[in-house]
Design a protein that fits this description.
- By secondary structure, the protein is of the alpha/beta class.
- The protein folds into two domains: about 150 residues, Medium-chain alcohol dehydrogenases, catalytic domain (Quinone Oxidoreductase, Chain A, domain 1), CATH 3.90.180; about 150 residues, 3-Layer(aba) Sandwich (Rossmann fold).
- Helix content is about 25%, strand content about 25%.
- The chain is built from ten helices and 15 strands.
- The strands form three sheets. Strands 3, 4, 5, 6, 7, 14 and 15 form a seven-stranded mixed sheet that branches.
- α10 links the parallel β14 and β15.
- α3 packs across α4, α3 packs across α9 and α6 runs parallel beside α7.
- The longest helix is centred in the middle third of the chain and has 13 residues.
- The radius of gyration is 20 Å and the shape is globular.
Amino acid sequence: MSVQSTEIRLAARPQGWPTAETFETARTEVPDPAPGQLLVRNLLMSVDPYMRGRMNDRKSYVPPFQVGEPLDGGAVGEVVTSEADGFKPGDIVLHGLGWREYALVPAKSAAKVDPSVAPLGAYLGVLGMTGLTAYAGLLRSAEFKAGDVVFVSSAAGAVGQVVGQLARLKGAARVIGSAGSAEKVAYLRDELGFDAAFDYHDGPVVDQLRAAAPDGIDVYFDNVGGDHLEAAIAALNVHGRICVCGMISVYNATEPTPAPRNLAEVIAKRLTLRGMLVRDHGDLRSQFVEDVAPALADGRIKHRETIFEGLASAPEAFLAMMRGDGVGKNLVRIA
């Protein structure tokens, strides 16, 4: 029999910053699964910066959300009914149809996860897309090597907290992070083992980075763009590398934002600047899990989550993530 489900839809395309009015809640019926499908009761869902880009009606690497239709994104849930070989009721699966209580999931798009191995949130964060983004971005896109001095922006966020710890574990000479509050700076220094961290509200990023890395940096992992990218270019040593993972400082801009004013330094310093999408690095997944899971289990890699309770809190969880509220990965507990 079909089930009643609540879902969060895109009510209107935001101009600038999204607001509560960007979202709407609706009730719908989810039919029985057809052959090859699973009916999944969602337990936990993720909110991520890339979702902001999908709210705009423009061509990109992934189709935009449609007004009046449910949003989607990473989620973990329990199989209620299975019409697919290899899955049974009670299995816990990772899939891409969050923002709703119940989802009709193609079995080919679901992966079983084991809650006895790691908490469910880890499969949406440090052992999921977030962790793989950090791993592939640092080791492949930024071509990290032992002895590098590494700077990470938004370092207390979901991706940044993993990047800095990976760099430290793999032999970085120095790891520096920026964050948006004194609490986050303390988290980076005292819990995650960053060598230096600063609050970007406390003064120009270029000055604070210069003080934290007087001999320059070799790798910049960019989650912010803007003044952070400009400061990193100024601090990078010859043959430095930049992995551009995100530019959250410009996602809500309503006018074109200026490029870094020192971009010409890329030439003299022979810098490498490379954008990255995690979808291009699926071939690293098994290596990533093999590398990171033991470090997570024995405490060499730590992570925090900020949990919002109930599906109705999903819009606020998303807006809080965009504002930089909370530490680590923002998740919504649906059930």
